[in-house]
Design goal:
The structure is a single chain. The protein has helices spanning about 1-10, 10-25, 30-35, 35-50, 55-60, 60-90, 95-105, 110-120, 125-135, 135-145, 155-175, 185-210, 210-215, 220-245, 250-260, 265-275, 280-305. By secondary structure, the protein is mainly α. α4 (about 35-50) packs antiparallel against α12, α6 crosses α14 and α14 (about 220-245) crosses α17 (about 280-305). It is globular. It starts with a helix and ends with a helix. About 40% of the residues are buried.
Amino acid sequence: MKDRISYILTNRNIIMIAALNLGILWGKYASHISFLSLPILSFMMTVSLIFFDFKFIFKSRDAIKYTIQGIFLNYILSGIVLMGLAYLIIPYNKEIYLGFLFIVFAPPGVVIVPFATLFKGDINHAATGVITGNLILILLFPLMIFFISTGNQSISPLSILKLLLILIVIPLIISRFFRNKKTLPLASKYRGPLINWSFFLIIYIVIGLNQHVMLYETKTLLLPMLVFAIYLFLCTFLLNVFLKFMNVSAPLRTSQTLMFAVKNNGFSAVVSLSLIGAQAAIPSAALSIVLLLYLIYFSFVNSKNQNL
């Protein structure tokens, strides 16, 4: 009995599915703890970055290569595929299309690093891609505002810098203090449960906040969800097949697939609401749902592969 309880409490797939169901059934409480989402993400990033050697960015030749790969996968290739699917599937709607465009401009999601950590991906590639991908947002953000201006409406660059500080800079600094002989083995032992239960809270909050849309406005979400379903399930599968054909190592394939698939939809949702309005945020809401299902699927597939 004790072993069964321990299995349930440590199995990441069970934890994620439980969070999904809890968010749908009792999502009304998510708004009360939504303020914890940023601290939780920051904590997850800190735990994951403990195993990343920051000197890698400056000393390794691979750092430049990983940076270019990350930018290509997360911004260029992802943008071409995502906007192409949106134009093919969704009838013209300026606000909806802008919502997709904001997702294209969104940096890589910070959850890439924890997932790469959990599934034995290339941590250096994942961390380098996430860090540089978020930093390049500083250059892309003014460009985005220039091309997608709506009169007097604007979003403060300080809010973006605040997110970068909370989700990248602070975790990176704190993680350095745990890179020693005493704390590194301890962090290695407990990183799995810490990341899993952090995911549990994040998933519950995201689904809970979208509970009403999921239950009562499903028609509005159907086409955007179809776009993301094709993008996340079919396109990532084809990308993985291509990378395997090119003899890319399994750890690197894992990180590159995540870099292509996982966008920071929290960023896109905030920008959509601030610049355009609620309708432009519909793609971000759809992405929240489908991305969660994809991460659960990704978790199952990679867990199975690790057990082979």
